[in-house]
UniProtKB/TrEMBL annotation:
Disulfide bonds join C188-C197. Residues 159-198 form the EGF-like domain. The chain crosses the membrane at residues 205-225. InterPro entries: ATRAID, EGF, LRR_dom_sf. Residues 1-28 form the signal peptide. It comes from Limulus polyphemus. Gene3D superfamilies: Ribonuclease Inhibitor. It comes from the Eukaryota. This is All-trans retinoic acid-induced differentiation factor-like.
Length: 234
């Protein structure tokens, strides 16, 4: 009985040691490199593309800038994070790119060539304000139109700020924000809010809370107590 218990304990300790060691060394003792590459530099976008054929634009940019190229992604490895700055989605049989670039607002270079059925609007590129080089399928126009880029064609390069070239004028207390290729929006300057940014001060969180949150909490507490009393007396 005691021997049996001892054996169980020994295998348990062995198992725990194995788990701890594996955890420490990354992937089962194969070293940190594999762990880093697969865990932190995963090019999830290559899932959209089964074909291995890629253009050279992104790879070339990546190596010229001394960045890290993996599969179809180019990462800028900084001390804070691995920032995706380049993406090659050429020859991926893409038909649309809606929601594809929601989390990639640091993209500088993007290749969409050889996707002849691709259909897009400038809204699909919302947030990509850093985009400087965009390669498109044949006969497609630059998102936001030619005016949104300093050079256009199958290669759209040098994204321009629509606040400037559209001569956007916001209200007195407003400020124009560049949100993407050919996309701009008026926002309020700090210290102003509301319709046409006409109201002054920050949003009155404290007053709002005193007026709404506290009564809500009090009411909830009141009903909770009364309901509980009913439960007890029943
Ligand atoms: C796309 O990739 C396939 C191989 O997967 C290749 O046969 C084809 O030529 C490529 N398309 C273009 C336009 O290069
Ligand atoms: C990349 O590295 C090479 C060699 O270390 C250097 O000559 C070059 O200036 C670097 N390029 C950039 C853009 O930092
Ligand atoms: C990479 O990130 C560093 C730190 O944020 C930045 O200074 C540098 O300009 C970035 N390089 C590229 C090519 O984006
Ligand atoms: C976008 O394209 C994918 C295939 O690439 C397709 O499954 C999906 O239905 C398309 N979505 C829209 C809104 O067209
Ligand atoms: C973007 O990030 C959110 C939250 O991290 C995630 O839920 C979503 O799937 C991501 N979208 C894409 C297209 O990767
Ligand atoms: C592209 O999408 C628009 C609207 O989403 C649609 O009207 C148009 O027919 C589409 N074009 C192609 C070639 O699929
Ligand atoms: C692009 O346009 C040219 C001229 O209009 C046409 O000859 C060619 O077939 C088009 N290519 C594609 C892929 O639609
Ligand atoms: C820009 O807008 C201002 C004020 O509305 C106007 O005076 C100026 O002529 C405009 N400039 C251009 C280039 O449209």
């Amino acid at each position: 009985m005691i021997v049996h218990f001892y054996r169980q304990l020994k295998s348990l300790i062995l198992a725990m040691t194995f788990v701890v060691t594996t955890y420490k060394t990354g992937t089962c003792g194969n070293g940190m490199d594999l762990f880093e590459e697969t865990t932190f530099l995963d090019c999830s976008f290559s899932d959209y593309c089964q074909r291995s054929y890629v253009r050279e634009n992104v790879r070339k940019y990546c190596s010229e800038e001394n960045l890290t190229y993996i599969e179809r992604c180019c990462f800028n490895k900084t001390s804070m994070a691995n920032v995706l700055v380049g993406l090659d989605l050429s020859n991926c049989t893409l038909m649309n790119v809606s929601d594809l670039f929601k989390n990639t607002t640091n993209l500088v270079i993007l290749d969409l060539e050889d996707n002849p059925l691709l259909n897009y609007t400038k809204a699909d590129f919302l947030g990509l304000t850093h985009l400087e080089y965009l390669y498109l399928p044949e006969n497609k126009t630059c998102p936001g139109g030619e005016a949104a880029w300093s050079s256009s064609g199958t290669e759209c390069s040098g994204q321009l700020n629509p606040c400037n070239y559209l001569n956007v004028s916001c209200t007195e207390n407003g400020q124009c924000h560049h949100l993407g290729p050919g996309i701009a929006k008026c926002g309020c300057l700090p210290g102003h809010y509301g319709y046409k940014c006409l109201r002054q001060g920050t949003f009155p969180t404290l007053t709002y809370c005193l007026a709404i949150c506290i009564p809500t909490v009090l009411f909830s507490a009141f009903f909770w107590f009364t309901q509980r009393r009913h439960v007890k007396t029943d």
